[in-house]
Write a structure and sequence with these properties.
about 750 residues; alpha+beta; Arc Repressor Mutant, subunit A; OB fold (Dihydrolipoamide Acetyltransferase, E2P); 6 domains; globular
Length: about 750
């Protein structure tokens, strides 16, 4: 075999590290990298810091003993068999982040050809293996090394004691069905929420309780569960907390900033807003158009590239919002105070000046660093009431008039119009639930939204005009595979979707507009939603399909999104808006660093992942609050709609409240039900009774588990079952609890819309 090419000796660059990791025939850890580049002494210490930075930037993943490029697969890793394709076993990484952009890599498993008694047991779907992997021109290949025992997941859970006195950890993740034996529960008592860690290499060795959280149903526990489950960083390192006050004390230069304190700029936000990124202003230009301003917190002035604040913000990617708390991207002294646009306070802002012509189109724009003084912080509801009363203050009247022009241009653009209800959890001062309802959609929301969209488009185009780097917000058109699935589904409803034409948002809008029946429209709307791709961040523009825009970037929320901070830095460089910090303990520059420019793709991938992580954590927490709210109403009958259909049953959600629950096929009676995948329906073989995605029907709530967020429904003529204590059921004997929290769990269905109770064909 030819000798591998000799690597340059000395401290490697980021790209050289990535190239070595990808080309190495063995797992490449810190030791292997140091040896390959001939590093010694202090260089090894620098390498350790470099690898830490690369991990935080989303360039690499893994551990100090085996790194791999982000989005790739380690040389030796744990895989799960997920499918069989024409005789080939297909595996996916067992620890793949479900919030990562795109689908997990799929590997073809090459089982060793061994005969006789030494032949390993045949692998099947669901098995876990330790495997050596390689990336070839035809894709990833996995070479099994050994079969692993079934995995016990969910290291946050509830301590439960069976009738023999044995302790078990019941997971709080509704996707996890198996409880884990507790080898050491320390001071934890039955019923307490705990954090545990595995002991030994064998799954059968069980887990050890390392922290007692307390009452699992206490206020604030639900968000703690989500934070632990999704690994969300929520404690700021000491160096970040020490640096934040120093950054907050940076003085604003009146001479170096455009003074806009005389304008009646207003920040319109939710009543419970914890930070205020944006504020808006408009006035007529005397020619049928408007001069407008979108003022955004100038976070880049305080959070400099390379600082401890910047490293932590990049790691977090975004703030995460729960009903009872926020896990901020930046420390509170910045996010809730110095950077937040508060009424009557002088604040640093990045100002986007817009001219809106009589047709509602933005005819010109410019960006400056400014000094603003917010005239009013107003809740959406209060702003709407003032306008609806018929005699609003002039600053609101001007905003609404400018918005109507923007709305006309939006209508001409014809973006995708889908009504997506948002659940709102209201808590009292003790953290107890007082109300759960669908958030009302107001014109005030649309006013702010359209101003923000205009500013985001202007930011993207302004950077393009200077050929500067852009972190785009990208929403690609639906894939052909999803369009074919949508076409086939619509065909079951007697509707046609021609795939020979160019697919635009307007195509879907016209389809929905032509449907007069509201229940049917809701059903088609959900099908269209399922066909859409996931939006993400990236430096290569692919447009925004949903908004029907060619160029779009996120500029308006730098307090809570790292993507927006990068866009601000790019604008600082492109338009020469630099304001150096005085010599001291924080970096001078507030524009893009060389590291930002060199790793824009990797950073974009990383923050796309953190965004998905936050969305999943927020959704899980809302599900738990909904289940807690409903736990006192088990046995009641609710109006529901079917949100998803599987061979084992269907999922339904309570109309006007949300919360997906399973209706097991075993509870539908003695009749055999056939799963029609194309029609997303279960069809009775004798009666023809059909339960299809979107159908509206009444169901009885049988179970509600606040710890997992799982619900279970049965038909109205069935009663909610009595849940037997853990350890007393036949299936529990000798092997501990099986179902998390004593409740039926399963995959979540997608939100959908419903028509009527068990219709017949």
């Amino acid at each position: 075999m030819p000798n591998p090419p000799k690597l340059p000796q000395g401290m490697p660059t980021r790209q050289q590290v990535l190239d070595f990791i990808q080309s190495s025939d063995i797992p490449a850890g810190k030791r292997e990298i140091a040896k390959a580049f001939g590093l010694k002494g202090q260089e090894k210490i620098k390498l350790k810091a470099l690898l830490k930075d690369m991990a935080e930037e989303g360039l690499i993943d893994g551990s100090k003993s085996a790194f791999h490029r982000m989005g790739g697969v380690p040389k030796v890793t744990t895989l799960r068999i997920v499918d069989v394709d024409e005789g080939d076993l297909i595996a996916e990484p067992d620890n793949w982040d479900p919030e990562a952009p795109g689908k997990p890599p799929r590997l073809i498993v090459r089982e060793p050809k061994v005969r006789g008694a030494k032949r390993p047991p045949a692998l099947k779907r669901g098995d876990r293996i330790l495997a050596r992997t390689e990336e070839t021109e035809r894709g990833w290949i996995a070479h099994p090394m050994k079969k692993l025992p079934a995995r016990t997941e969910g290291l946050m859970g509830i301590v439960e004691i069976d009738k023999t006195g044995k302790a078990w950890l019941a997971p709080v993740d509704k996707r996890v069905r198996q409880s884990a034996p507790i080898a050491d529960r320390g001071e934890a008592e039955a019923g307490q929420l705990v954090i545990a860690e595995r002991v030994g290499r064998s799954e059968r060795a069980g887990v050890k309780v390392v922290e007692v959280v307390g009452d699992p149903l206490a206020p604030r526990s639900f968000s703690l569960i989500a934070i632990a489950k999704h690994g969300i960083p929520h404690i700021f390192p000491d160096e970040v907390l020490e640096e934040a006050p120093r950054a907050a004390k940076l003085k604003l230069s009146e001479k170096a900033r455009e003074d806009l304190r005389h304008l009646p700029i207003v920040a319109i936000d939710p009543a419970d807003a914890r930070d205020h990124d944006d504020a808006i202003w408009a006035e007529p230009d005397g020619q049928g158009g408007f001069n407008a301003l979108v003022a955004i917190a100038d976070v880049s002035f305080y959070v400099r590239p390379g600082s401890a604040l910047d490293r932590e913000a990049r790691k977090r990617g975004n703030s995460v919002y729960f009903p009872d708390r926020v896990v901020p991207m930046l420390p509170e002294v910045l996010s809730a105070d110095v950077c937040s646009l508060k009424e009557g306070q002088d604040r640093a802002a990045m100002a986007c000046h817009l001219h809106i012509n009589a047709d509602g189109k933005v005819s010109s724009f410019r960006f400056t660093r400014a000094l603003v003084r917010i005239a009013h912080n107003i809740a959406y509801e209060d702003a709407q009431k003032a306008v609806d009363a018929g005699n609003p203050p002039e600053f609101l009247a001007n905003l609404w008039a400018a918005w109507k022009a923007l709305a006309a241009a939006r209508h001409a653009r014809d973006p995708l119009e889908l009504e997506l209800p948002e659940r709102r959890v209201v808590l009292n001062e003790k953290g107890q639930i007082t109300e759960i309802a669908i958030r009302e959609r107001l014109d005030a929301h649309r006013v702010v939204e359209d101003f923000m969209i205009a500013a985001n488009v202007a930011a993207a185009k302004a950077l393009e005009a200077k050929t500067a780097p852009v972190v785009y917000r990208i929403h690609e058109p639906p894939s052909r595979e999803k369009l074919i699935a949508l076409r086939d589904y619509l065909a079951t409803m007697g509707k046609k979707l021609a795939l020979g034409q160019v697919v635009t948002p307007g195509l879907f809008n016209r389809m929905l507009k032509d449907i007069s029946d509201e229940a049917e429209k809701a059903l088609v709307m959900e099908a269209v939603l399922r066909s859409q791709t996931q939006a993400y961040y990236g430096p290569a523009n692919a447009g925004h399909f949903g908004l029907s825009l060619g160029s779009y970037a996120h500029f308006t929320s730098p307090i809570r999104r790292y993507s927006d901070l990068l866009v601000h830095r790019a604008l600082v460089d492109a338009y020469k808006l630099e304001q150096p910090a005085p010599p001291g303990s924080i970096p001078a520059t507030s524009g893009l660093s060389d590291r930002d420019r060199a790793s824009l793709q990797q950073v974009s991938d990383a923050i796309s992942q953190t965004e998905r992580r936050a969305m999943e954590a927020e959704r899980d927490t809302i599900d738990r609050y909904v289940a807690a709210w409903l736990s006192a109403r088990v046995g009641e009958v609710f109006d529901t709609r079917i949100t998803g259909v599987q061979a084992f049953g269907f999922f339904a959600t309570i109309v006007g409240l949300g919360g997906d629950g399973l209706v097991p096929i075993s509870t539908l009676g003695g009749e055999y039900f056939r799963h029609d995948e194309a029609a997303q329906a279960l069809v009775g073989s004798d009666s023809g009774t059909t339960y299809a995605s979107g159908d509206r029907l009444k169901l009885r709530l049988a179970e509600a588990n606040p710890l997992t967020g799982a619900l279970k429904f049965v038909l109205p003529d069935q009663q909610a079952g009595v849940i037997e204590p853990r350890g007393t059921r036949p299936q529990d004997r000798g092997r501990g609890p099986k179902k998390a929290g004593k409740f039926m769990v399963g995959q979540r269905g997608r939100p959908g819309n419903i028509r009527h109770q068990g219709r017949k064909k």
